[in-house]
Amino acid sequence: MSNLVIDMGNSRTKIAVFRDRQLIYHEAVQLTEKRIYELIKEFHITTSILSSVTKNEEFLKLLERDTTLIQFSHRYPASVKINYKTPETLGLDRLAGVIGAMQFYKNKNVLVIDCGTCITMDAITGGGQYSGGSISPGLNMRLKALHTFTDRLPLVNLNNDFTGWQGADTVNSILSGVLEGAFQEVLGFINKYVAAYPGLQVLLCGGDANFFDTRLKNSIFAPIVETEPALVLIGLNEVIHHYND
Q1: Is residue 162 within 8 Å of residue 175, measured between CB atoms?
Q2: Average pLDDT of the residues in 222-234
Q3: Which pLDDT score is estimated for 52?
Q4: What's the confidence (pLDDT) of residue 79?
Q5: Which of 16, 41, 113, 217 is surrounded by the most beta carbons within 10 Å?
């Protein structure tokens, strides 16, 4: 008896299978009904949950037909107290991230930084209070925006090995502005959160987490930074446990 967890983001879909709270399988895929059906049969899925930035009625119908489908929403009545002023607009991946963080650091203030299509930062207190955070463009979105909204700037590919802060040509100037700019942005936010949340722990997740992890591990914040690629999936699995307990 296993749980199927699906997180459909803006740029990729992550799937995980949990047996109780143990992650036994995960992948990033172009999701299809066929693949969902295969996973249900292969792992004897009994319960499922889907978090998506868009409507996916065909997937929901399949999951509802062949599993017990948990409909995750901002009304999730767990140990998280949501103080967000517009909870109906809150991205469920952001909420799942802080729920997942609570499983790693109980009774501790945690800042979740999800480095994906967008860079989101969300803090939750050791007492389970969630008030919001910030959303800004991710690394690839920044690179694409410079090309799309100007006449002459080229489209530059993300280069995680770039370490300069001052570009001597246009390509390197763009990489400097985007990569170093995003890193300094994250550093500044962490500094603010450290001042506001005593004993803060930082958890990174998302496709560009390694970029920030490498640089933060060389900063003054190294002792409080950890990376958990499956954080959102772990949070979604915890939602299933809440409804089943």
Answers
A1: yes
A2: 96
A3: 80
A4: 73
A5: 113
The answer to whether 15 and 2 are in contact (CB under 8 A) is no
Q: Which of 7, 20, 66, 93 is catalytic?
A: 93
Pair 33, 140: CB distance under 8 Å: no
Confidence of residue 133 (pLDDT cuts 50, 70, 90): very high
Helices (H), 69-225: 92-104, 139-148, 170-175, 181-196, 209-216
State the burial class of residue 77 (Cβ atoms within 10 Å of its Cβ: 0-12, 13-18, 19+). Answer: exposed
Q: What are the CA-CA distances from residue 89 to residues 46, 132, 139, 220 (Å)?
A: 29, 11, 23, 34
> 236 near 71, Cβ under 8 Å?
no
User: Phi and psi at residue 199, in whole multiples of 5°?
Assistant: 65, 30
Q: How far apart are CA 10 and CA 164, in angstroms?
A: 29
Predicted confidence (pLDDT) at residue 78 exceeds the cutoff of 70: no
CA dist 220 and 224 (Å) reads 9
Asked if 93 is an active-site residue, the reply is yes
The residue among 164 and 115 whose pLDDT is bigger is 115
- Predicted TM-score (pTM) of the model is 0.93
Task: Count the helix, strand and coil residues of the chain and give each as a percent rounded to the nearest 5.
Answer: 40, 25, 35
Do 156 and 230 contact (CB within 8 A), yes or no? no
E-strand spans in the chain? 2-8, 13-19, 22-29, 45-52, 68-70, 81-82, 110-115, 118-124, 129-137, 201-205, 225-227
Q: Are strands 129-137 and 118-124 parallel, antiparallel or unpaired?
A: antiparallel
The whole-number average pLDDT for the span 19-43 is: 92
Res 4 pLDDT > 70: yes
pLDDT recorded at residue 77: 56
